[in-house]
Amino acid sequence: MLNMDTLYNQTNRLIQQTQQVFQGLEGNNVNAIEIENEIQEKINLINSNCEKLDTYLYKLSMDQRPNAKMRCDQLKYDGKHLQAALVSSKQKRARREEAANEREQLLNRRFTANPDLTAINIDYAIQHQNSLNNANRGMDEMINTGANALESLRNQRMTLKGAQRKIMDMANTLGLSTYTMRLIEKRASEDKVILILGVVVTLIVILIVIIYFT
C-alpha cells in the first residue's frame, strides 16, 4: 500500500507541476515548442504512472479498491485534460504562426516593386497624359475657332447695320416706295435672325466640346 500511495502522490505533484509549466506558454512564441515538448514528456509520465497504479488496484482488498480506483480515475482525468489543453495550445500557436506568415507575405507583395508592372503603369500614365494634352489642345482650338466665328458674326452684324443705314438714307434720298423700304427691312430682319441662329449654334457646339473633354 505504501508504494501505491507514494506513486499516487508523485503523480499528483507531477500534474501540478505540468499545470504550472502551461503558464510559460502564455505569450511565449520563442520557446513555445520546447515548453510543449516538456509538457508532453510530463503527460507521458503521468499516463505511465496511472497504468502502474491500475496494477496496484488488483493487489488491494475489495474494501480498499473502490476508493483507490476513484483516486486513480481522477489522475487519469487530469492527465487527459492536460493532453487536450496541450493539443489546443499547439493549434493556437500554429494559427498564430500561419497568420503572421500571411501578414508578412502580404506586406512583401505590397511593398516589393514589380518591374514589369511598374513599366506598364508608367507607360499607361504617359499615354494618359498625352491623351489629356491632345484633348486640351483640341478643346483650345475649338474654343478659339468658336471665338473667331463669334467675332466674325459680330463684325458682319455691324457691317449689315451700316449697310442698312446707308440703304435707308439712299432710299430716303431717292424717294423709294414704302413697299421697297419694307422689303429692305424684312431682309435686314432675316439677316438678324440668321446671325442669332449662327451665334446660338456656335455656343452649343462649344458647350458640347467642353462637356465632352471634361
Automatic annotation (TrEMBL):
Localization in the cell: Golgi apparatus, cis-Golgi network membrane
Keyword Membrane: yes
Domain of life: Eukaryota
GO terms, molecular function: SNAP receptor activity; SNARE binding
Regions that span the bilayer: 193-213
GO cellular component: endoplasmic reticulum membrane; ER to Golgi transport vesicle membrane; Golgi apparatus; late endosome membrane; SNARE complex
Keywords of this entry: Golgi apparatus, Membrane, Protein transport, Transmembrane, Transmembrane helix, Transport
Matches recorded under InterPro entries: GOSR2/Membrin/Bos1 (IPR027027)
Keyword Translocase: no
Topology of this chain in the membrane: Single-pass type IV membrane protein
Biological processes, Gene Ontology terms: protein transport; vesicle fusion
Pfam hit, one: V-SNARE_C
Recorded family membership: Belongs to the GOSR2 family.
Job of this protein: Involved in transport of proteins from the cis/medial-Golgi to the trans-Golgi network.
Protein name: Golgi SNAP receptor complex member 2
Organism of origin: Brassicogethes aeneus (Rape pollen beetle)
